[in-house]
Amino acid sequence: MRPSAVRLLNILVPVKRTVDYAVKIRVNPDQKGVDLNVKHSMNPFDEIAVEEAVRLRERLKDEVKSIKVVTIGPTKAAETLRTALAMGADSGIHVEVPDSAPPPEPLGIAKALRAVIQREKEGVDLVILGKQAIDDDASQTGQMLAGLLDWAQATFASKVDVDPKAKTANVTREIDGGLEELKCQLPLVVTTDLRLNEPRYASLPNIMKAKKKPIEKLTPADLKIDLTPLLETVKVTEPPKRKGGGKVESVDELIAKLKEAGITPVKS
Predict the structure, then answer these.
(1) CA-to-CA distance for 123 and 98, rounded, in angstroms?
(2) CATH of the domain at 114
(3) Tell me, what DSSP letter sits at residue 70?
(4) Would residue 218 count as lying in a domain?
(5) Which residues pair with 217 in a beta bridge?
(6) pLDDT tens track for 96-113
(7) 15 with 80: CB under 8 angstroms?
(8) Is this prediction's pTM over 0.70?
(9) Would you say residue 260 lies in a domain?
(10) Which stretches in the chain have pLDDT values below 50?
(11) Between the CA of residue 5 and those of 158, 167, 203, what are the distances in Å?
């Protein structure tokens, strides 16, 4: 029997539905965003987060009580939750926003996640989410969430070890020029880097089982939050196409071409 004083871990994994990484992005006709009428899938960094939560349960066995996934998005975002459930999560929460609504900003998402955490009766000990979403590349939500909750945070994690008894976690994070090791107190927010793990493929039996796992539906009003963006996108354009290069026969010709282009060569 496990001592009653030892609290089992409850893990929350936020996931986001994004344009699939293999899709070539195109600006939409009104130049206010990109064409979203394309294939979508789970944000790759969030896949890593779900995988890490499942691996923690495999390593810690009966010391992880639940893995819950949450998404904030339109109706079709429920498909992303089902993918996470098929990977091994236990249940999901879908904070549904209208399909016509503009995408929420990181601060709005962080506030929504804080509200979700605060309403969890059994509490949340560990939040694992991707370091960034590949659609906006903001890399802000995890940090903002930790700030709003006044929790410890460990970003860009490439290794995570949790000790439920001591209520601590050792996190190795990637920084410029090397690795940094942090010892953090739970509750904790962790954002995942690319090298943390290799997400598994959901098997057909697990995909079928995921259809029966519970998903709670909420609205921003239920959480008493406003997801209206604070920023306005004025215009989105594609980068200018690169011009073709040319060949030169000698260094002197190269220097002449540079001078014609208004570039002054620097003498070494």
Answers:
(1) 28
(2) 3.40.50.620
(3) E
(4) yes
(5) 94
(6) 999 888 889 999 999 999
(7) yes
(8) yes
(9) no
(10) 1-4
(11) 31, 12, 37
